[in-house]
Design goal:
single chain, mainly alpha, 2 helices
């Protein structure tokens, strides 16, 4: 049986090189997500350690900082559910436009909030 010759574009990547590049991209993305969620986790864990100082300064009982911590955790969980459904409903472009608009509004508000 004769061998079939195929033409290859000059500079075209081999399939193994494409797989290697996508693996690097996925690992970088995973590292960024790990660092982002890790920093948020440490931020959420700061409240229980600071609770004695906050309670003393603001004359709070032990129940009030605990309730604040629980409301923060519950809000975090519920917003995760909502944020997970948004791309399904809006599509990728709608989510991108909505987040861009939200950041623009927040950027306009922040100088006002910083002076108060």
């Amino acid at each position: 049986m004769p061998r079939i010759r195929t033409r290859v574009r000059p500079g075209a990547k081999s399939p193994s090189a494409i797989d290697r590049d996508s693996g690097r991209y996925e690992n970088r993305l995973l590292l960024i997500l790990f660092l982002a969620f890790g920093s948020v986790f440490f931020d959420r864990q700061a409240l229980p350690f600071l609770a004695p100082f906050i309670s003393k300064e603001n004359h709070l009982s032990n129940t009030e900082p605990g309730t604040l911590s629980e409301v923060l955790a519950l809000t975090w969980a519920l917003s995760g559910l909502v944020a997970g459904r948004l791309p399904d409903k809006l599509g990728d472009m709608g989510l991108l436009q909505g987040s861009s608009a939200g950041q623009a509004v927040e950027g306009e508000r922040s100088p006002i909030r910083g002076t108060v």
